[in-house]
UniProtKB/TrEMBL annotation:
One of its GO terms (biological process) is folic acid metabolic process. The keyword Oxidoreductase applies. Keywords: NADP, One-carbon metabolism, Oxidoreductase. Pfam families: DHFR_1. GO terms for cellular component: cytosol. PANTHER family: DIHYDROFOLATE REDUCTASE. This is dihydrofolate reductase. It is an enzyme of class 1 (oxidoreductase). It comes from Natronococcus jeotgali DSM 18795.
Amino acid sequence: MTDAPELETDRELVGIVAVADNGVIGRDGEMPWHLPEDLRHFKETTMDHPVIMGRVTHEGILEALGEPLPGRTTVVLTSRDLETPGNAVVARDLEGALEAAERAADERHGGTNRLFVAGGATVYEGFLSSLDRLIVTEIDDDPAGDATFPERDPETWREVERDDRDGFSFVEYVRKE
Ligand SMILES: NC(=O)c1ccc[n+]([C@@H]2O[C@H](COP(=O)([O-])OP(=O)(O)OC[C@H]3O[C@@H](n4cnc5c(N)ncnc54)[C@H](OP(=O)(O)O)[C@@H]3O)[C@@H](O)[C@H]2O)c1
């Protein structure tokens, strides 16, 4: 196992994910549910911040929106030579992604204190031990899927906020000291 990549500053590294009861987060490159409230929540939470994601998730967003997430800087993890528009940058490894996100926070997002990690499965896995906070949409369902959120040790995370809705909840966790 490699060491957890660490931020050079005291910024918060925040994971944001929608996850079903059975741990599923994706199917065939998409989310297995249609939840406009969650998409709004994601947009409001991440707006004007750097957002790190894997190449597969990035391509899913390009397919859905025709462009990277507006108003944010997308840091795309990939080993490929991708062409990216102005509001997206490529990173080759987890450390490089953190550096690119820190740079974007300073240069494009007013020095914001938060950097987001927005999936998919391989990217959550890579960063899980580095995350300070998790913003989770917990979905009351057990859909079929091929991408799951990595196992979380309940001893590591303390719930600090919960907003129960119809069929899902917005929940926030912080890493215990
Ligand atoms: N429910 C949610 O909140 C949520 C959020 C995001 C995504 N998803 C779902 O998750 C699924 C996609 O997840 P995924 O795990 O298949 O793909 P992914 O994590 O989005 O992308 C995987 C790719 O990212 C690159 N990558 C990952 N780690 C890297 C590293 N350490 N260094 C360099 N490159 C790295 C590699 O790209 P190359 O192959 O180009 O080298 C790898 O193939 C989709 O179904 C999507 O809808 C769900």
